[in-house]
Design brief:
By secondary structure, the chain is α+β, with helices and mostly antiparallel strands. It has 10 helices and 26 strands. A hairpin with an 8-residue loop joins strand 10 and strand 11. Bound molecules: manganese (II) ion (MN). Manganese (II) ion (MN) binds next to loops.
Amino acid sequence: MIDETHDPALPCWVPEAAGHPDFPIQNLPLGIFSPPGGTPRGGVAIGGYILDLGACHAAGLLDGLAEAAIDLTLDALLTQGVAARRALRSAVSRLLSGPSQPALLHRATECSVHLPMSVGDYTDFYAGIHHATNVGRLLRADVPLTPNYKWMPLGYHGRASTVRPSGAPLRRPNGQRKRATDAEPSFGPSRNLDYELELGIWIGTGHATDAPMPIGEAASHIAGFCLLNDWSARDIQGWEYQPLGPFLGKSFFTTISPWIVTPEALAPFRAAQPTRPTDDPQPLPYLWDEADQAGGALGLTLEIWIRTAAMRAAGMPPHRLARSSALDLYWTPAQLVAHHASNGCNLRSGDLLGSGTISSATQGSEGSLLELTRGGREPFALAGGESRRFLEDGDEVTLTGHAVRDGFATIGFGPCVGTVLSAA
Ligand code: MN
C-alpha cells in the first residue's frame, strides 16, 4: 500500500536525509544499535543518523508504539505484524517531518550496530536461477539444473550462531581441502574463499508447528529484508558436500546488513514475478498465488564491490565486481516461506532466510567468484593491476542494494561489509 510516507516531497529535519542514497525519510528501516557508551536499543536509520526509539518512547513520543523496541532485539516489535509496523512507520514519518528534535538522534558513525532479531534459525535457499545454472554448468555441463529445481525452492539449514552484522571481520576458515590433483585431503586454511550476494528475509510473525500456511498468507509473516553475504569456502564445500550438502564450507560466517527494510518501505518497488518460460512446469497449488505472482517480487538492483589491502593502502575506491537484479530469483519470498512451512515445521519470530545467490543472465552480473572466475580458472582483473581467483586476506567485500522507480525516492539497504582476516 502506497501512502503519504512514500511522498517524494516529504520534508525531513534530519541534516542531509533528503536524497540520501539509502536512508531518506521514505525508507525508515529498523535495527538495533548502541550509542556511544549506551546499551543496545531499537533505532531507525535516517540519513547519516539513527533515530533512538528508546529516547522517543521515554520522551512520550510515537504514541507508545516504540515500547516494544526497547529490547535487545526487535523480535517483540516485529512479531506484532503488519498493522503495528505500519502504525510505527506513520508515527516515525510524522516525527521526522515535523519540528526538529535533534536530541533524539545519534551520528551513525559513532554507534555500533547489532543483529536486529534473534536469528534462532537460519535457512539458505538456492532461488537464483542464473546462479544455479552457472554453478550447475561447472559440475554437469549438459544438465546444469537438477530435475527438482523448477518444482520447488531448494535450500539447506544454515548455521544461526555465526550470523553477524555488517562490519564484523571474518576469519578465513580452516578445513579439509582436496584439489583434483591431490591424492588425499589436507587440513588448513581454505584456498578458495568466496562471497555470495543474497537477499535476506526476516520472519516477523512466527508460525505454529503443524499449522497450514496458505501461500496467500505467507507474505504476512515477513517483517522485512536485508542484504546477506553467504561466505563460502569452495574447496571445503567441494570435498564435503556429497551426499548430505553444505556444512563447514558455509557455517563459519554469514554477514547481513543490519537494517531491516520493511515491506511497507518497499511497496512502491513491488513487481510481478517474471513469467515462467512455457516449457517450465506449473508450480503445485501450495506454491501458487495469483496476487503473489502479480506483485510479490522485488525490483532491486544489487551490487558487489571489492577493496583489497593494496587498494586501501593506495587510497583507491572499491572496484565493482558485479551488478544483478532481485527479479532474477525464480521463486518469490512468499513462495520460499510457504515452502518452508509446508511440512509442518514451525517458523519463529527472528528466523532468517537467505534467497540464494542472485546472478543475472549477463556477464558482469555474477553473484559469486565461483561464477565470475569459472571456478577459479579465469582470474578477474582489478583496477590497480591485481587480480583475483578467490578472496585474499585483507580483501574487503561490500554488498549494496537499491530500489529505484520514477516518481519515488530511491531507497537502499546500507552496506553489508566484511573484511577477510588470515586463518587462526
Ligand atoms: Mn548461499
